[in-house]
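Researcher: Let's try something more involved. This one mixes different molecule types, so please make sure each is placed in the same coordinate frame as the others.
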Amino acid sequence: MSEGDVARSSSLAMSGGRKRHGRRLHRIEPKAVLGVMSRDATVFTRNWKTTTFSSVVEPTIYLLAFGFGFGALITSIGGLDYKQYVGTGIVATAVLFSSAFPGMYGTFLKYRFQRTYDAFLAAPVDTDEIVSAEVLWIGLRAGVYGNVPLLVAIAFGLDPRPTAVLVPFICFLTGCAFVAFGITLAATAESIDNFSYVTSGILTPMFLTAGTFFPISSFPAGIEAIAHLNPLYHCVQLVRDVVVLGVEPLADLGHLAFLLAFGVALWRVAIWRMRKRLID
Amino acid sequence: MSGAAISLRGVVKRFGPITAVAGLDLEVPPGICLGLLGPNGAGKSTTMRMLTAQAIPDEGAISVLGWTLPGESKQARAEMGVVPQLDNLDVELTCRQILTVFARLYRVPPDARAGAVQRALQIANLTERAETRVDLLSGGMRRRLLIARGLVHRPRLVLLDEPTVGLDPQVRQELWSLIGALRAEGTTVLMSTHYIEEAERLADTVAVMARGLIVARGRPADLVRQHAGEQTHEVYGPPARLEELRAQGERAGWAMRRSGPALAILHAEQHDGTLPEGVRRAATLEDAFVVLTGEEIE
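Model: All components are placed in one shared frame. Result:
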């Protein structure tokens, strides 16, 4: 069949095609986000054991080592039993480990080596939706994994307040923010080795200056001021308040607002950086 | 709007100092299979990426299925299927899981999803491998799965970027059958390739691309007739003899190309009686391609 014949025979199918198939697809569509998340969930059904092990065991070891090790030397901090102090603080560490690292390494592998995002972008899915889906999915996981150290602490005698039911939400919010942080780094790094700088130069200091193991007031004034800008510190304070100290509405709204602002800002930056990576 | 399934007008795409696509004009009418034939680096893959808005042109206008890109690319992508040159399958998932994820991404309604996946598996002859993980599939099966993934939502347009590159001849034949079936169904196909035989076998129309531009377009037989004539005369001999012959041919105004160990003289039917002893054969698309692009091809 000649080109002209084929074109004529198909012209009917094409004419009005825009109306028949026409539909507006918005920038961030729940269906696309859920579609990408369904891929992540399907992969998770295969690798949940390793993912869960790495996300849960390390912070739990920190909890047991510091709680029982230092706990034998330090009885209380700020009126809190040291085990309670660390048990609530280490939640933020679990969230950090289960969100920033998958955000960095997982995203880098998917866009650089597996080209998973290229496959998505050939379908009706945009970068905004890919990034949002990754943030939500890993954030959800962090929302669950973050509770594990707390459950261990409860098993060792921590008596939580009823407001402790808010912990998964705090973990989810903090987790989303740190996934976005990880994706931003993944979309910026030239090589996977660059993450060593981030781990040693940013994440380790962040986790040590969050008030997890000792109050940030122990630091010199300058470092203490910087520690107030550490998102993990706000997560620790929120968790400690809802689990053992009691909610302080104004202060806790401030912590919440800080985490929210950090998360939204990093989410937008992650989209911008990833778009630069994926779209020529 | 011309009614074309794909329309590119004056499209330019630069990567720093390199101009990958240099003012490309291309229209693909609905219902045909157009083969975009060109050597490596001709700009074929960049063109394909611009059609899914994974690359944004610096100049020019693109429309796909009536949608203007890049602003409406998402709508266009919902109605087309893409088979990439590079394997980007999730190796941890099974064939069925991958197709189910993509059926969802392509907005196949939930109640139709299982059927769509089954149909795609059948098209790609992977029904028996539905529950097999991708990392356990052969290279040919993975290519078929990539095609199935691009067809799971019954697209009106399919983009195939070098669909058989790197595959052995038997697998290539299998994929050609699959692509042939798409053509027969009337699906519009744009296929980039650097395999002459592939373009000749599958494409209704071939557009030859070189240095970021379409340098010729037409049915394969017409391109051969127009650019390489009816017959090609191949002369074999030692290199010095062939060089001598080439110099003679240049003086006489013959169109020539090196063809392995021989010098091929094109439009041989126009030079009867004046050519040295050699082997006469029908002109091929490869002859036309070399004349058009100045480059040998696989």
